Amino acid sequence: MTQGSESVRFGERTTDTVLHRFEQWALDTPGARALAAGPDTLTYGELDARADRLARRLLDSDLPLGALVAIGTARQTELVVAVLAVLKAGGSYTVVDVESPRVGRRQLAAAEPHFLLTDAAQQAALDNGGGPRVIRLDAQAPAIGGPRTERPADRPEDPLPGAAAPPPGRTAAVLFTGASEPRAVPVGHGLLLAAHEGWAEVARPTPRDRHLFTLGTDVTAFAAGWTRALCSGGALVLSPRAAWKPEDIRAAVESERVTVLHTDPAGASHLLIRQAETGTLAPVAHRGPDPACRSLRMLAVSGDRLYLDEQATLQARLHPGARVLNVYGSAECAGIGTWFELSQLPHPLDDLEEISLLGTAFPGFRAEVRGREIFLVPPDGGDAIPTGDLGLTRDDGLLEYGGRIRDRIALPGGRLLDPYPVESAIRGHEGIGAVIVKGVDGPRGPRRLVAYVAPPPGGPTWPAGAALPDIEELRDHLAGKVLREEFPRTVIRLRTLPRTPAGGEDRDALPLPILPEAARGAGSKSGKSGTTTGGGETSAGCAAGCGGVGLGLVALILTNLLWPGSTDLTGVPQPWAFLFFLLYVFECVAFGVGVVFLFGGRARMLRQRRGHSLTVAAHLAVSYLLVSWWPQDNLYRLAAKQDWPRQAALVYAFNIPLMIAGAVVAAYVVSKPADPFDFHDPDDDLP
Length: 687
What we know:
Radius of gyration: 31 Å
Largest sheet: 14 strands, mixed
Number of strands: 25
Shape: globular
């Protein structure tokens, strides 16, 4: 079946582009705010003038017409200036990731741009010497928020190439899909404008709107979505830093009075559904609107599946009249395709926690389901674009999401399992908010189904002793809903599911379970795998012990050089002299072991999967507890008992830190792992 709308026609205004839309607003309202980055702002007139100056630099650098320019900068204001400048100079733009230089270099390799616009801080990370020609943005960059600069007087007589309308099919932007292996997707001027117009007809943006995008600037949502603000006279709210931090988004929404927030499901939950103060699983939907988000009139959620119960909860956390849109699209369609909000439902539905609706196509676009796969048709009338997602068109005309084809799991016997229906059924359990079912290689077959579960937003983060579902309870819950051979064999509890930079669930980042059968098999066999692992651990332990003893002997030799007379046992009778000498030896050996642990123990402690900060503190504390005895006792023995200033200095220099170190170690010992595995090996009599 096909959904579609003809209210926006591709190529209806062949002289129109998103750049022309922006320039018209700059001409009509030059004093209106266009960009806000913390306390600094740029008006439309200032932004247009800055983009003009950079465009002329590009032309002076012999930028060919239509050439691709990559933009990699952590200064988001300069990034927007660069995007507009490239379009003004007649080129096409792509935004690369500077937060992860490895990803950024892969994106550059996939796109093969003509120029790279970047700063000194990012050039070393992105430019390996064999890539595109580099133009430094910070070479001539006036401070943001400075005095307004008028357009050059020669602009009317010497127009920029971008002022002439390019053909709708000429590439305007190159977007990326995927992170480990980025794929470059060209988007034409006509499609970029059609995507903006389709969005504008649904969202009805106004010049009073202030838009905030929480995802990275290289992600399609921002790289193609900036037009939603700057082509409608609104303002873009940007992070003063390279990327938004979760704790800063809420403050920015409140202080900047953001009206339209573009985010992913996890970002929306983090903003609107704060962690519960109690350990109960009270329905968060019953909480009232969030006062900090009173300015929001629209929440646009994209990047991953959004279930109806999650959408209803988000809707309840906004003030009356605000809208929550579930936006679905692909890079090939400039980030849009279909949209859904709860008001589209013709009647109430059951099992909201098991349904994710994609709704209807944006004006000008079409959505089709062919052989269960969703295809999106852009307004240019070209070929339908396969999304790789499954779906169905319901009797009420709404498109329902059905999972991703690439997530299918090959079961023993060759049958393919779509995990999405199983995941949706598991979400029906009241204690589970998010779930991923993944096939993991096991000793008894090619695939073993593992359920990774996380609590609902606002609920407890798996505290010790909480009544949460184990594998047996989960089986009881799934009985009659899915086939018995589709039951997960293992449950792993996580505080949250890992996410990609685009906001989607990252199945590749899930931790692997330690299967008891595999561990027992490795220990009982004399194969190379088990022997090598055990031998490696033993060898490493022996090397560390020998190194500690060796350093201890060195410390014993240096004692009399550093603290002459501190170990003098003349006049001390036996056996006390021998016992004191043995004490000195132990102190020196403890010092040696502490030094070895300081440089080699951190990696082993990180395997315990406790919090990173607590692990670092505990590692330093244990090292101090071992190292400090040797210098401390030698200094004590040289201090006169009545030398109170020196005694006090020693106490506060050694004894107090020792107490603090002991407390840190105690906190580490009793803490739970940051990503705890709750492995429960079920009976293995399932077919």
